[in-house]
């Protein structure tokens, strides 16, 4: 039933428990199932309820640990998890921590290679990360660095993307 988050959560937790018994607690399959929990906790809303922050942060840290062990540090999946954690901090107005984590993600994608099982290319994701860090920098008053990242993101999006929505978002970041 659509919107039945309580049952969705119960079934997701059962799936995680089952997968842990099959492939181990630190398998990449478990990490993939853990990634869905945040969506369920949001209950169809854009933002995570405040009372779920610590739990979702712990889940993302667990995912990160599994991914580092499975893929190594210089992998786009690892960078994406750093980005997810940074977004949690940004939503709680902890922009300094968000900036630190987004810069780590940018550093990782600067060394990563494209992955067949990731939704976009490394260069496209790097442009996305540049556009994600810019608002956090604005919120800390670092307008010059924010503009620099926004321009880098716009440059990448223009070169590789015909998606007007991505380009409009890049201009909005300026």
Describe this structure in words.
It is a single chain. The chain has 174 residues and is mainly α. The protein is built from 8 helices and no strands. The chain has helices at 5-23, 28-42, 53-71, 76-91, 95-111, 122-139, 143-160, 164-173. α2 (28-42) runs antiparallel to α3 (53-71) and α6 (122-139) runs antiparallel to α7.
What are the salient characteristics of this protein?
single chain, 174 residues, mainly alpha, globular
Counting DSSP E segments of at least 2 residues, the number of strands comes to 0
The coarse overall form would be globular
State which percent range the strand residues make up: under 5%
**Helix fraction bin:** over 70%
- The whole-angstrom Rg is 17 Å
Q: In angstroms, what separates the terminal alpha carbons?
A: 42 Å
Characterize the largest beta sheet: strand count, sense, and whether it forms a barrel.
Answer: none
Order of helices and strands: HHHHHHHH
Poorly predicted tracts of residues: none
User: How many alpha or pi helices?
Assistant: 8
Helix/sheet category: mainly alpha
Mean pLDDT: 92
Give a short summary of the structure.
It contains eight helices and no strands. It has 174 residues and is mainly α.
Layout: helices, strands, pairs:
Layout: H1 5-23, H2 28-42, H3 53-71, H4 76-91, H5 95-111, H6 122-139, H7 143-160, H8 164-173
């Amino acid at each position: 039933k659509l919107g039945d988050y309580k049952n969705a959560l119960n079934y997701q937790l059962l799936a995680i428990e089952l997968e842990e018994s099959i492939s181990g607690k630190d398998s990449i399959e478990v990490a993939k199932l853990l990634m869905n929990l945040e969506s369920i906790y949001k209950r169809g809303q854009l933002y995570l309820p405040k009372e779920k922050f610590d739990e979702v942060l712990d889940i993302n840290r667990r995912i990160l640990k599994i991914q580092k062990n499975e893929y190594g540090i210089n992998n786009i999946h690892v960078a994406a998890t750093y980005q997810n954690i940074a977004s949690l901090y940004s939503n709680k107005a902890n922009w300094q921590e968000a900036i630190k984590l987004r810069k780590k993600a940018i550093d990782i994608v600067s060394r990563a290679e494209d992955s067949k099982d990731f939704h976009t290319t490394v260069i496209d994701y790097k442009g996305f990360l540049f556009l994600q860090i810019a608002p956090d920098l604005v919120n800390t008053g670092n307008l010059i660095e924010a503009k620099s990242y926004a321009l880098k993101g716009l440059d990448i999006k223009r070169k590789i993307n015909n998606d007007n929505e991505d380009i409009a978002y890049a201009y909005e970041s300026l």
